[in-house]
Each structure stands twice: as structure tokens, then as C-alpha cells.
Design goal:
86 residues; little secondary structure; two-stranded antiparallel ribbon
């Protein structure tokens, strides 16, 4: 069976959730993968996060360092002067 997309993980264009390459639809919002869905490059260790990105203590979603609340559930978090989010 041929695959319609490259074997790379991707961001949903609606909710910005990272999806595995084999997902034809977003696991979060169920939107079909867009043909122009941006790829989600991984770090050498297989992770997506950059320095100071943080996992929400309430829902577990990874948020960019610049966020002070979770993009998914709105819980407070983030980094403040060298402190990591819960």
C-alpha cells in the first residue's frame, strides 16, 4: 500500500497538535491531514521540544517556552527566570 504523505510527523493546521506520520487525521481535533501540513522536525534524541519548552502539569501537552498558559487547557505554567513549569 502506498503512503500519500512523506514519512514525517506533522502539525495540524487547525489546532497545531503534533501528529505521528501515519495519522491521516489529527488525533486531537479529527481534521484530515492537509496536503500542506507543516512537518514537525525532531531533535536528535527523538523529542520535539526546544530549550525551555514545557509540559503542562494538567493535560501533559508540550507548550512553547514563550507561553505562560497551556495552549490546550489554559492552565498556568511556563518558565519564569530559570524556573521550570510544574
Amino acid at each position: 500500500m502506498s503512503r500519500p504523505y512523506e514519512d514525517v510527523d506533522w502539525f495540524c493546521v487547525d489546532c497545531r497538535t503534533i501528529n505521528f506520520s501515519n495519522n491521516a487525521a489529527c488525533f486531537e481535533c479529527k481534521r484530515d491531514r492537509a496536503a500542506d501540513a507543516p512537518t514537525a522536525p525532531r531533535n536528535k534524541d527523538g523529542t520535539f521540544s526546544k530549550a525551555f519548552d514545557w509540559a503542562c502539569g494538567s493535560c501533559g501537552r508540550v507548550n512553547w517556552a514563550k507561553r505562560t498558559t497551556c495552549y490546550h487547557c489554559g492552565a498556568r505554567g511556563g518558565h519564569r527566570k530559570g524556573h521550570k513549569a510544574p
